[in-house]
Amino acid sequence: MKYKIKVYSIWEFGQRKDAEGNPHQEDCTYPLPADLKDTDRTFILCDGMGGHDAGEVASATVCQAMGEYIAQDQEREAKDIFSDDVLKGALAAAFDALDLKDNGAEKKMGTTMTFLRLHRDGATIAHIGDSRVYHIRPGKDGMDTRILFETEDHSLVNNLIKIGELTREEARHSSQKNVITRAMQPHPDYRPKADIYHTADIQAGDFFYMCSDGMLEQSDMESGESLRNIFSHKIDSTERKVEILKDVTEDNRDNHTALIIEVVEVSGAPTKVVPTPKEEKKPTPKEDTKPEAGAAIPSKRMAIVEEDTKSEGKPSGGKSGKFLTLALIVAVVVGAVYFCLNYLPGCSDKDKKTEMTVDKERGERDAKSKIKEIKSTKRQSTPAEEAESDQSNIAPIASPTAGKPSAATPATTGAAKPEGKTNADNQKQEVIPGFKVPPVKPKQDGDVLPSDQQKAQEQLQKIY
Questions:
Q1: What's the pLDDT score for residue 51?
Q2: Please, are residues 135 and 204 in contact by the beta-carbon 8 Å criterion?
């Protein structure tokens, strides 16, 4: 791509003064305002910081180091070739130059950096800090004018806006609005990287507007509303646009600088052709919608390139196959669980309840049969055996003469001997396996103990 351009600059002190009360300017450009030519293709704008004899040193050092690094390869410049590697080399040279200028002061000097290079493949834009670069496509009025691209500030208030801690209106009045999160300084702990943007969507009539933050003190300028009005076709000449920009910012508190690059003609095509999908010929309604005030709109070509990059290397048709496989696995697992719960013995709660009922009924039947057996045995025994059986289960009763055995009665009278138990006693103890009828002591002398039949009835009540 080849371009015919016209370049304009603004370089103002504003209300900024140094310690001695003199106007103070810490911004710098490459080329310098007095050296700008319409044949230039590399443009750099820096806004220095750090106080007297510091901010202007940092901004001038970066502009000079980067510009000279890029211009030194005359063969590459003659072919109009430019790459990100060249840009990164220029940034490294600028950091090295800042290191050499370090005076050892505790408060380090520093500068922002904005960069524009027009080359045969389009334009490369880069920035560090809160100075900005705009790519503007004029329309018939402010509403029809489009901001195709705008750099994003590396600043504290911008980060707070992103996370919802500040509104844009609050950020404009914040005491921390000048705090930046990236800057070029000597001997930093790490060298911050620049954000880089590429575009080949450049047409005749477009403008590239580079400016320091001092140009954007008014809210309408910062939001882009005034910029769209100024760069629209309602302001017929570029010279008039520059005059309006100067008038609007004349009384700004900070020193301010701007470069205005007007693209007069564009010929040829980029050597790196980006394939354009057929859908681009039929823009969606969203693309046809006019931008709202303050909205930054990326170019259509860049949006297409980003979409192609995201989809590159992803196989097509893989999602449907994975879905069918997953559905089949789920169906098999559900079927297996259903079969186990409904058909396999012991798997369901119903089977477990049935088994418990059967066991209970079997136990009841066994208990009833044992009781009947005890009753039949009692009916067949003689009265003498019953009396002997009852007497064998009676514990000795204490008497006043206890401990003094008589001659007629043995000392062991009334003691229950295991070997002297009758068949009835053995049968009675087998009613329940492991169950042994304990001897019962009457509460008072002469109480009658329950018979075997009564004991059986009591045992039956316990079972039920």
A1: 61
A2: no
Rounded CA separation 351/320 (Å): 42
Q: Which helix (H) or strand (E) holds 397?
A: none
Q: Which of 448, 383, 368 is nearest to 422 (CA)?
A: 383
Distance CA 241, CA 404 (A): 140
Q: What letters, b where the CB count within 10 A reaches 16 and e where it falls short, cover 347-385?
A: eeeeeeeeeeeeeeeeeeeebeebbeebeeebeebeeee
CA-CA-CA-CA torsion sign (32, 34, 35, 37): positive
Q: What local confidence, expressed as pLDDT, does residue 407 receive?
A: 40
Low-confidence stretches of the chain (pLDDT < 70) are: 17-19, 51-53, 272-323, 339-464
User: What is the spatial distance between Cα 411 and Cα 403, in angstroms, rounded to a whole number?
Assistant: 8
CA dihedral 97, 24, 158, 228 (to 10 degrees): -110
pLDDT of residue 175: 86
182 Rama sector, left if φ>0, alpha if ψ -120 to 50, beta otherwise: beta
Distance (Å, rounded) from C-alpha 450 to C-alpha 442?
10
DSSP string covering 437-458? PPPB--SSTTPPPP-HHHHHHH
